[in-house]
Amino acid sequence: MKEYPNVMVFDHPLIKHKIAHLRDKNTGMKEFRELVEEITSIMAFEALKDIPTKEVEIETPLEVCTQTMIVEKSVAIVPILRAGLGMVNGIHTLLPTAKVGHIGMYRDEETMEPQAYYCKLPQGIENMKVFLLDPMLATGGSASEAIGFLKKQGVTDITMMSIIAAPVGLERVAADHPDVKIYVSTLDRELNEHCYILPGLGDAGDRLFGTK
Ligand code: PRP
Ligand code: URA
Questions:
Q1: Burial tier of 154 (Cβ tally within 10 Å: 0-12, 13-18, 19+)
Q2: Residue 138 Cα, ligand 1 centroid: separation in angstroms?
Q3: Which residues are 77's β-sheet partners?
Q4: pLDDT tens digits for range 12-28
Q5: Please, which residues bridge with residue 109 across strands?
């Protein structure tokens, strides 16, 4: 696929190892959920490197020093329901002050077009750095639509985080939204005739929540 300056694909043995387990059809719901969370946390170290910080005075038992701390209320995490929910704790445990918004979207099984059904965003989100979460980026329709929606709410600083992407979907989102940083754990081969990612991991929502 063409190179995009706003796309970062991880090449890390720890992530690769965990994704191998995630793909395995014999991996059960509990382990699947834990893996999604762990992979998100590893990605977060890189993806959150530019979050707003401030200098504060801290008194150690020995002296006063100036230290760097994260600016509270400066970050929002927005999962795309359902599967994005599985990624939330991977960041929230690292950054408990982050606000959480929700965007509900599902793919129409005939047209593959995203259908929005729910939205609740934190007040003042337009002034926050927003991390949009969805483990699967297939045609890119859901991600692109969700980003467009956030922009309409006035959000200007958006980072997308996905675990597995198909080249066609990643190219679509990168081209539709060149101002959005996109972090992807791994880039898969292609989509099948039902727009599922190959080799992929199947339906992320069903595997996270045991619905099939
Ligand atoms: C999955 C996934 C993404 C979307 C990706 O959700 O979690 O949101 O498909 O596909 P796209 O890139 O082609 O839009 P799904 O529609 O299965 O809904 P669910 O999470 O509620 O199962
Ligand atoms: N959504 C999923 O959960 N898996 C895919 O492979 C594509 C879309």
A1: exposed
A2: 8
A3: 100, 131
A4: 999 999 999 999 999 99
A5: none
Domain 7-52+63-209 coded CATH 3.30.70.141: no
166: buried, middle or exposed (CB in 10 Å: 19+, 13-18, 0-12)?
buried
Q: What's residue 3's pLDDT? A: 87
Q: Is 203 a catalytic residue?
A: yes
Residue in 37, 36, 126, 131 with CA at minimum distance from that of residue 77: 131
User: Is residue 4 in contact with ligand 2, taking CB distance under 6 Å?
Assistant: no
If you measure from the C-alpha of residue 61 to the centroid of ligand 1, how many angstroms do you get, rounded to a whole number?
A: 51
Peptide bond into 199 cis (omega under 30): yes
Give, for ligand 1, the residue of 112, 142, 164 to mutate: max count of ligand atoms closer than 8 Å to Cβ: 142
Residue 11 carries which side chain, given as an amino acid letter?
D
pTM: 0.96
Q: Please tell me the distance between residue 2's alpha carbon and the centre of ligand 1 in angstroms.
A: 24
Please write the tens of the pLDDT for every residue from 72-130. Answer: 889 999 999 999 999 999 999 999 999 999 999 998 989 999 999 999 999 999 999 99
Report residue 2's pLDDT band, with 50, 70 and 90 as the boundaries. Answer: confident
* CB of residue 200 inside a 6 A radius of ligand 2: yes
104 forms beta bridges with 81, 118
Q: What residue spans define the domains of the chain?
A: 7-52+63-209
